[in-house]
Write a structure and sequence with these properties.
Layout: E1 2-4, E2 12-15, E3 25-30, E4 41-47, E5 50-54, H1 69-80, E6 92-96, E7 98-99, E8 130-131, H2 133-138, E9 145-149, E10 152-163, E11 170-181, E12 186-194
Parallel strand pairs: 7-8
Antiparallel strand pairs: 1-5, 2-3, 3-4, 4-5, 6-10, 9-10, 10-11, 11-12
């Protein structure tokens, strides 16, 4: 985790996740001038005058309080939401495979992008992992499943991910299990993988920021 000093707040925007601890501030910060602008945006988290740059969802451990299944599902969707998926900056993008009729139930994190994202006019036909309902069914996908297991929450869902390399980015679909503890401790397990299915009127476009 990279430590940033308090001056970062002068060029950052605070957002509300809904499950951060009362003494915690979460912000969107700029790490450089890039095009598009989103390519240089990251999350930061902190208390008082010291702020940490968030490079992994695991960096939020100890800064959040996951109280129920909705919190847990919203927490893992920080990784895959169109509002925030570009902020992890590790050469990889991951988005959840969903149908357009599920967009209305997706969490909104209050960023500037939330006003025009998460609508079928923007995401559909495979773009960002969003499919029309018939393609979602034909591809044998299913909505995310979540349950409480003891003191933790277990989420299973389909995701589409891309890993940048010297050649063309490799895109893959995986069925993953995520385990979230109350303090935000996070684990992920890949249960299965498969190539992109050839579905009618589906183009599997993935937002890549250069």
């Amino acid at each position: 985790m990279i430590i940033l000093w308090s001056f970062i707040s002068s060029y950052s925007d605070e957002i509300q996740l809904g499950f951060e601890n009362p003494d915690t501030k979460v912000r969107i910060v700029s790490i450089g001038c890039m095009r598009p602008v989103e390519a240089g945006q990251r999350l930061s988290v902190g208390r008082g005058k010291i702020t940490h740059l968030v490079t992994s969802i695991r960096d939020l451990e100890g800064y959040v309080s996951i109280e129920n299944t909705w919190d847990a599902l919203k927490f893992v969707r920080l990784i895959t939401s169109p509002e925030t998926e570009y902020m992890w900056g590790a050469g990889q993008r991951t988005m959840e495979v969903i149908s357009t009729d599920m967009l209305v139930g997706m969490p909104k994190f209050g960023t500037d992008m939330s006003l025009h994202l998460l609508s079928p006019s923007t995401f559909n036909h495979g773009y960002g992992g969003v499919l029309d309902p018939q393609a979602f069914k034909s591809g044998h996908f299913a909505p995310a499943r979540i349950k409480r297991v003891g003191s933790t929450y277990e989420i299973r869902r389909w995701v589409i991910s891309t890993q940048n390399s010297n050649s063309a980015p490799k895109v893959l679909i995986s069925y993953i299990k995520e385990v979230v503890e109350k303090n935000g401790r996070y684990s992920q397990f890949i249960l299965s993988k498969k190539p992109l299915p050839n579905l009618s009127n589906t183009f599997w476009q993935f937002p890549i920021y250069q």
